[in-house]
Amino acid sequence: MNKLWSCLLLALACTSVQAGVNSNDVEGSCGPINIPTHVGPFDYRTDRQLLSLVEYGHFQPGVERLIRPMFEFFGADLDYTLKAYPNHHRALMTMARLTIKEKSLKPKGANFSAECYFIRGMTFRPDDLIVRMIYASFLVMHQRNEDAAKQLDFVLESADDDPFTHYNAGMIYADMKDWPRALRQAHIALAGGFTRPELKSRLQQAGQWREPSAQAAPAAAAASSAADDKPTAAASR
Questions:
Q1: Alpha-carbon separation of residue 67 from 49, 64, 127 (angstroms)
Q2: Which one of 1.25.40, 2.40.10, 1.10.150, 3.40.50 gives the CATH number of domain 127-216?
Q3: How far does the signal peptide extend, from start to end residue (predicted)?
Q4: Residues 1, 167: Cα–Cα separation, whole Å
Q5: Does the pLDDT at position 174 exceed 70?
Q6: Is 48 a residue whose pLDDT tops 50?
Q7: Which of 107, 131, 150, 210 is deepest in the core (most CB within 10 A)?
Q8: 122, 129 in Cβ contact below 8 A?
């Protein structure tokens, strides 16, 4: 998990979650991941040899900002990008925002529903927790908080003590107005050394911020120490 993801999540959190969307737009099939006639699929995190070429043709800043499509529709540009890189984090976030802009779960020009692109990304790389976090934000946008909470449960079970992940989970819990969980994740992130102020500010504005208890820091330090010991223990087996 990295700092760029935190900045991306802040941008997504600014999107309205009240847009009216027809739930009947969701398609039943999300199609194959491997498409013989299409470039890819490549892992956005590691397989970047063709990334600049794909983005130059289909994911320039005008597309990411939903200002100017490369083709006739934004959905067509994002479809191409996400077929080449199914777990392209920024393209997935843009797809989520596009459903709000167009008030449709299947944007014009896209071959699949927006949700399908998240399913494809998670199927392609189940270990990419960022995809699941963006998916959780997408679900919150469309008032599916219970489904979002399930994704966050999975992420947090897999995240150990990574402060970036806990911080971003806290931001999504804040979107859900689940203040106790947002506060807990904020405390964990702070104890892990992640000091971005936005989550604390949101909690303060909601009247929900509480300073960490005296016991929180030692507990976090113990968890961090245990996590540091894991590779050594595994190597000794």
A1: 27, 8, 32
A2: 1.25.40
A3: 1-19
A4: 11
A5: yes
A6: yes
A7: 131
A8: no
> How many other C-beta atoms can be found within 10 angstroms of the C-beta atom of residue 125?
19
d(CA 187, CA 162): 12
Residue 68 burial (CB count, 10 A): 10
Instruction: Write out the two tokens for 43.
Output: 């892992």
Band of residue 71 on the pLDDT scale cut at 50, 70, 90: confident
How far is residue 129's CA from residue 151's CA, in Å, rounded to a whole number?
9
Rounded to an integer, the average pLDDT of 207-220 is 71
DSSP for the chain, written as a single string: --HHHHHHHHHHHTS-S-----GGG--S----S--TTS-----TTT--TTHHHHHHHH--HHHHTTS--SSSSHHHHHHHHHHHSTT-HHHHHHHHHHHHHHT-SS-TT-SS-HHHHHHHHHHH-TT-HHHHHHHHHHHHHTT-HHHHHHHHHHHHHHHTT-HHHHHHHHHHHHHTT-HHHHHHHHHHHHHTT---SHHHHHHHHTT---PPPTTHHHHHHHHHHHHHHHHHHHHH-
Burial per residue of 72-86, b for 16 or more beta-carbon CB atoms within 10 angstroms, e otherwise:
ebbbbbbbbbbbbbb
